[in-house]
């Protein structure tokens, strides 16, 4: 269901809005406005990475005082220096010796998390989500799954009326979610949380969950509200309904222990290698091979395999690594596993699939290797898919698509140009972006936009003289090139 990206929290729950943004992997800024202040979350591909606030008590210095990291005297001294310089208060506190760099790192993350969690407490606030690129100057970003962020934030809500309003009636029956993206989120559950979750079986009403939990009604309701908010539990389908017959609840297939059992500890490098190995095979592997099933597999086996693989390659696993491209790869793998399951979960469709053996789909071969004519249609498809990923802010995925387009059509200068643009957005890939754009210029040396883009790469790298030369070349080709004119001004 599509949710309005602008409105009031009385009409649209902030939790539901964030889950919607996360599931649709949107990039942009979510603003929450009340008469006294405005607070913002900056979201990249569905995950919150930073936050800001105009509320004075949310400033870093005030947060550090409340956390006991600095004294009032140290705070006052840092403010005096702040008024005489353009430096940030955190940097000043480190220079004065009041904080270590490690303390500052902790403090900024603490500040961001506190701002975000306070936004969940706001009632009758106007909100607006604006899609598009987010500020990139912050070097310290939040590394926390959306599920854990919502889970910790909703725990703080103590408003009984609000919780009852957003929950189903106590006579309603809840079941575990059928969506593994919700079911296998990176959530840290307490023993009480696990107890409540164990009572959600598709048969107990909310009232019966309370009665069997041995917790107070409000405590039990609050835990259920948190689990409901993050999507781990949902309304059960009425017994005998078409939906219930079509897809049995997942707890029939897997136990609660399977859901709560953490993935095996794995070193970052080992996880990245395993993900890379599967990611590079996605274009060649059959759906049955991806799900690790054969023609003898029954519905139960297919479903067990799906949930096992969905848990193993859940996008939340990327939060444990420093590899920024890992999430894009995990997301692609997760989507492929889900697509394969939807194809093969039905008995009749699965039998039909195995009656008609399919050859593995070979990835498009680069023309220079195969000697065959360029397949313009496939190249254009890869290019368009790359544009879509680029617009979503998935620059790693976009680069992969553009790279395939250049392999299929190596003489198309525009494909090389867009590959360079995607690479320039990925940390540590400016050199690759430069070399790629040089290829585009060899193919089309009179393209003023390519020259201007090369100038922007040099400008980003701090090479102003080289950038100026490129901008001047672009303006000689096309005196009306605004990008080159603005770039030349920036070189001074």
Compact summary:
This protein has 492 residues and is an alpha+beta fold. It has 26 helices and 7 strands.
What does this structure look like?
With 492 residues, the protein is α+β, with helices and mostly antiparallel strands. It has four domains: 138 residues, no CATH class; 91 residues, Arc Repressor Mutant, subunit A; 88 residues, Helix Hairpins (Orthogonal Bundle); 124 residues, Serine Threonine Protein Phosphatase 5, Tetratricopeptide repeat, CATH 1.25.40.10. The chain has 26 helices and seven strands. A five-stranded antiparallel beta sheet has the order 1-5-2-3-4, covered by helices on one side. The protein has a two-stranded antiparallel ribbon with strand order 6-7. A hairpin with a 2-residue loop joins β3 and β4. About 5% of the residues have low confidence.
Kindly report the spatial arrangement of strands forming the biggest sheet: 1-5-2-3-4
By DSSP, the count of extended strands is 7
The helix count comes to: 26
Mean pLDDT: 83
First-to-last CA distance: 50 Å
Over all CA atoms, what is the radius of gyration?
26 Å
- Total discrete domains: 4
Structural classification: alpha+beta
Low-confidence stretches: 241-252, 360-374
Please give the structural blueprint.
Layout: E1 6-8, H1 14-23, E2 28-34, E3 37-44, E4 47-53, H2 60-66, H3 72-84, H4 89-95, H5 101-119, E5 126-131, H6 146-155, H7 160-166, E6 174-176, H8 180-183, H9 191-198, H10 206-213, H11 217-229, E7 233-235, H12 242-246, H13 256-260, H14 268-279, H15 287-291, H16 299-312, H17 326-344, H18 347-355, H19 367-370, H20 376-391, H21 395-408, H22 413-424, H23 430-443, H24 448-460, H25 464-477, H26 482-490
Antiparallel strand pairs: 1-5, 2-3, 2-5, 3-4, 6-7
